[in-house]
Amino acid sequence: MAFLHIHTPPHSITTLSFHSPPPLRFSLPHSTLKTHQQNSLFSTTTTTKNTPFSLSIHPRKLLCQPPRGKHVREDYLVKKLSAQEVQELVKGERNVPIIIDFYATWCGPCILMAQELEMLAVEYEQNALIVKVDTDDEYEFARDMQVRGLPTLFFISPDPSKDAIRTEGLIPIQMMRDIIDNEM
Amino acid sequence: MTLQAQASSSFTIGIPSFTSPLGRSRHRFVVRAQVEPSEKAVEIMRKFSEQYARKSGTYFCVDKGVTSVVIKGLADHKDSLGAPLCPCRHYDDKAAEAGQGFWNCPCVPMRERKECHCMLFLTPDNDFAGKEQVISLDEIREATANM
After folding, report:
1. How far apart are the CA of A115 and the nearest CA of chain B, in angstroms?
2. Which of A166, B24, B120, B124 is most buried, judging by how many CB atoms fall within 10 Å of its CB?
3. ipTM of this complex prediction, to 2 decimal places
């Protein structure tokens, strides 16, 4: 067991430690603090080996599959779209629900909502399409959609006969999951 | 033939200047968020937030990032409109709303029912409420550094 931990690269350890709240981005810089704590823990169990943790010159024997780095990206999963792009998306053919997040630059709860939506995007992956629209940029579109309070979420089902669902304000992530699972 | 061509070319050059600007964009003065509000406005809104939280018996959010962003939003509106319009709403006409006053911070819902949907002033029973009624300029700068 101890050998297994030595050979895995540092960033894989952080994916195991899913404490709440999870970091906004699943990327290295935010998780270095956790790796430091973990490293000191593992180094005490291996007194014989003094090789540096990540920078070894000779090839390592891989005892487990290295992480695919699916979510270690620079960009956020939730993309910011223009009004034109959103309209094309909604009109076009699709078989997953769309979630549109209307936000503003200096709206505090919108930041919390954005974090929740990133988590949701990771959970649902290809099963839901989550996009965001800046209401300061897309003034007319927000006005046409009668957006008032921010953040406002629109849940649009792939089934054209179903009504869209609209929520205003910060809502818990479980409510979003319920809407997607039950209403869409 | 050449005369005709010349006439048509001069004609086509004339057209774009008439057709491109739509009447709508000329009349409406769009107020957009600036890149950063001024330091002075941020300081004014910071002091106001602390004072109003004390006065109303409300607390800032556990996540001071939310508080910082809202304070900057208020400062931004104060700079552009002259009044701290609520940054967590979308308005048809920001200048008119600022003049009217319903959504000027502290807004009417806050004054009447202590309801702040920006999560700036939170009553103690709110899940997100912290224990502090103070926030420093450094905290605001740090929290909004990557925006």
Report:
1. 12
2. B120
3. 0.75
